[in-house]
Design brief:
Helix content: 40-55%
Shape: globular
Distance between the termini: 47 Å
Strand content: 5-15%
CATH class of the largest domain: Alpha Beta
Order of helices and strands: EEHHEHEHEHEHEEEHHEEHEEEEHHEH
Number of helices: 12
Strand order of the largest sheet: 3-9-8-7-6-4-5
Number of domains: 2
Structural class: alpha/beta
Number of strands: 16
CATH superfamily of the largest domain: Type I PLP-dependent aspartate aminotransferase-like (Major domain)
CATH architecture of the largest domain: 3-Layer(aba) Sandwich
Largest sheet: 7 strands, mixed
CATH topology of the largest domain: Aspartate Aminotransferase, domain 2
Radius of gyration: 22 Å
């Protein structure tokens, strides 16, 4: 199976940005199609037969998500995606604490997705407080700092299962257990974990877990918050009372159906996908390090999910590298954020203590089981050339 996709400008695009988004799976597209026609157009809240058919379809999707992720159907709160679910988990739990007369204080890791970090900033504007938990040089959470935060009293702890930039796999069982002992709700952003590593709630004391559809073959605009204790969460939206009032509003039926199928298949295919993506990632890193001895594999010393590789090439910048690779027909992601024409270091790599010259020169390659050895061959052929061109241009500009 090849990772090439037809493209208007290049019929052989190597797509290695699967951590950003993935194509909609045919199975998900087929399952959601009746919801976009007269067959299942009803409002799931309507009492007549058209509404009841929609409701039955919605609840079937909810059961599929629950069974795949090891929770109860009532725990599945459909959202518009991972960002909404993260905000609901972080801000909603803090608001729940305030309603009980406790401080709106949350603890999150320094390498969280922006959806979590900026939710804490929004919380601070409401009078709340955020404790930012440090990580080591590989991006692994400092457990002593976690214990200190738990001792200080927090409404929720949020630590992502798999980092979206480096692929670092946090010790979620240990973190969740420590939160349980302290009587603190635990939230994990599992957007990059579902379908990549085993991540069931079944045997872990996880209170809240975020899932996103478009990372695993469902369309954009659908996700879920697994809320195993809805009493700790206050809604951010107010309306008709759907989904236990935690996330009111008419549900995205087509999206929920697609998410149910995508989650079920992602979990079922996990072992095969991990074998393929892990092999491709390891091959890419080994061959590029041989070609570029000063290349840095970020977080190489940590346990990582198999599908993500973050690589830093000294003497370059991620924006220029990405542009050269795009011209060569390779789609990847910058390891740093571009703003107003300048390249600024990634907050993830900065929190890890990575030197600025590496942080601004890092790219993320993220695989799916659709990728192939030929895709790696293309990158190994083109990446060193891109590095050479950028270094040459950088040297000329610095004279």
């Amino acid at each position: 199976m090849t990772g090439y996709f037809s493209h208007a400008m290049d019929t052989q695009l190597v797509y290695l940005d699967n951590a950003a988004t993935t194509p909609v799976r045919p199975e998900a597209r087929e399952a959601m199609a009746p919801c976009l026609t007269d067959a299942l157009f009803g409002n799931p809240s309507s009492a007549h037969r058209v509404g009841r058919a929609a409701r039955a379809t919605l609840e079937k999707a909810r059961r599929r998500v629950a069974e795949a992720l090891g929770c109860e159907p009532a725990d599945v709160i459909f959202t518009s995606g991972g960002t909404e679910a993260d905000n609901l988990a972080v801000i909603g739990t803090a608001l729940g604490a305030r309603a009980q007369g406790r401080p709106m204080r949350v603890a999150v890791s320094a390498v969280e997705h922006k959806a979590v970090l900026e939710a804490t900033q929004g919380l601070e504007q409401l009078g709340g407080e955020a404790i930012i938990l440090p990580v080591d040089g590989n991006g692994v959470l400092d457990l002593a700092a976690l214990d200190d935060a738990l001792g200080a009293g927090v409404a929720v702890v949020s630590v992502m299962w798999v980092n979206n930039e480096t692929g670092v796999l946090q010790d979620i069982p240990t973190i969740a257990e420590r939160c349980l002992r302290a009587g603190v709700p635990f939230h994990t952003d599992a957007v990059q974990a579902v379908g990549k590593v085993p991540c069931s709630c079944r045997d872990l004391p996880i209170t809240l877990m975020t899932v996103s559809g478009h990372k695993i073959g469902a369309p954009k605009g659908i996700g879920a918050l697994i809320a195993r204790d809805t009493d700790v969460v206050e809604p951010l939206l107010h309306g008709g009372g759907q989904q236990l009032g935690i996330r009111p509003g008419t549900e995205n039926l087509a999206g929920a159906v697609a998410l149910g199928v995508a989650v079920e298949l992602a979990v079922r295919e996990l072992e095969d996908a991990a074998r393929i993506t892990g092999g491709l990632r390891d091959d890419l890193e080994q061959r590029l390090r041989a070609a570029l001895p000063d290349l840095r594999v970020n977080s190489a010393g940590a346990r990582r999910a198999p599908h993500i590789s973050s690589l830093g090439a000294p003497g370059t910048d991620s924006q220029s590298l990405q542009m050269h690779l795009d011209v060569a027909g390779i789609a990847c992601s910058g390891g740093s954020a571009c703003s107003t024409g300048s390249v600024t270091p990634s907050h993830v790599l900065t929190a890890m203590g990575v030197a600025s010259e590496i942080a601004v020169a890092s790219l993320r390659f993220s695989f799916s089981k659709r990728n192939s050895a030929q895709d790696v061959d293309r990158v190994v052929h083109e990446f060193p050339k891109a590095v050479s061109k950028v270094r040459e241009l950088t040297e000329k500009l610095s004279r």
